[in-house]
Amino acid sequence: MNKNKQEIGDDYRQLQIKIFARTAVLMFVAIVIVWCIYNSLIHGRFADAVVRLLENYVYGDYDTALQIYQLVFRNNKIFLLMIAVLLIFWIVLWIYLAGFTEYFIEINRGIDALIEENTGDIVLPSELAATEKKINSIKHTLEQRKMAAEIAEQRKNDLVVYLAHDLKTPLTSVIGYLTLLRDENQISEELREKYLSISLDKAERLEDLINEFFEITRFNLSNITLEYSQVNLTRLLEQLTYEFKPILSEKNLECALQIAPNVMIRCDVDKMQRVFDNLLRNAVNYSFDNTKIRITAVQEDHNIRITFTNNGNTIPEEKLNRIFEQFYRLDTARSSRNGGAGLGLAIAKEIITLHGGAITARSEKEIIEFEVVVPLS
User: Fold this and answer.
1) Is the pTM of this model over 0.70?
2) Residue 112's domain spans which residues?
3) Using CA atoms, how far apart are residues 239 and 332, in angstroms rounded to an integer?
4) In a domain, 130, yes or no
5) Fewer CB in a 10 Å sphere around the end CB: N or C, the chain?
């Protein structure tokens, strides 16, 4: 939240007080010096010293020395005073600006420490406490971002290594069974069908792994942009559930869709379809067999609220908090078919955010629910 002018003024109150005090002292000293010079030009020790100097070393006569002093100094006292005032002004201005320069030097030192990524907090003079706080806040934010980027990069590298390793298993199986089919002349039709079925299954798994490689590359090399159009959300979700029937049947799952007829929204249909595809695929992967997946869409004023609910193992809170992170896999088992590249939900969140909506996840009592809220227009 942005601070108002009053709060910003309060943050720099100590600096204002110190600058005001320094200015007041310099002005007082300057006035005293000018007053002393003015009086010395008229009378006092300065006048006596000048007259004595002229008498002893120049003219040798007191009256002549006094006359010369009056002619040169007293008669030109205004001019001399102006020169003195100008000189004092430059001296005071130099001292005044030197004080400001010290603050800039300290701030630059703090910025240098920020750039050099020095450990520990940056310490500035007490009157620059507000600036010190801001610089340290930036420092901590940059450190957190750097750490998050390093973690994401390491997680990505680990996934690439895992996927590369996992590519060998289905590929080896495909080559092995196809070799058997080629070399075995007397193989039975039943065994041939079995080998072909296994080879196809392994080839499909190989395709999934290769697609995950491309998914990682696309996520890092492209920015998601939206192309809006008017879309019938009801038909979009009906088509999605129909296309998933073969996948649902593998685990004997049922998908129940509850939405009003002809609900229209304005969105990027391809991107939104990708979000719903990811959420439904996620629900299928982590559902118990022989259970029901529920998709519900409810219109609320200017928004539409869509929920995907399934029965599955309760997701721990610490995993639930990270479920939308890049390259975070809920199932970290390398041999699991459920463990993808960890990008589906991260991309879904980015797409929903770009639409001005929000996506959240909840899990308790073996019920998992993803909720998407997007504007209707």
Assistant:
1) no
2) 5-118
3) 31
4) no
5) N
Q: CA 133, CA 285: separation in Å to the nearest integer?
A: 47
Q: How far does the chain reach from its first CA to its final CA, in angstroms?
A: 28
Q: What percent of the chain has pLDDT over 90?
A: 13
Residue 295: beta bridge partners?
257, 308
Extract the tokens encoding 244.
């998933």
Same domain, 268 and 176: no
Is residue 48 domain-shared with residue 156, that is, in the same domain? no
Above 90 in pLDDT, residue 118?
Answer: no
pLDDT tens-place string over residues 251-270: 899 999 999 999 999 998 88
128 CB burial (10 A radius; 0-12, 13-18, 19+): buried
Find the helix or strand (DSSP H, E) in which 327 lies. none
Axis-axis angle for helices 129-183, 189-221 (nearest 10): 160
- Predicted pLDDT at 343: 67
Within a domain: 340? yes
Number of folded domains that form the chain:
3
Q: Chain centroid to CA 118: how far?
A: 20
- 217 and 233 share one domain: no
Q: Are residues 214 and 157 in the same domain?
A: yes
Residue carrying the six token digits 């809920």: 330
The first and second tokens of residue 24, run together, are: 């007041």
Residue 4 confidence (pLDDT): 55
Q: What's the confidence (pLDDT) of residue 224?
A: 66
What tokens were used for 188?
């039975």
- For residue 136, is it within any domain? no
Helix (H, G, I), strand (E, B) or coil at 265: strand
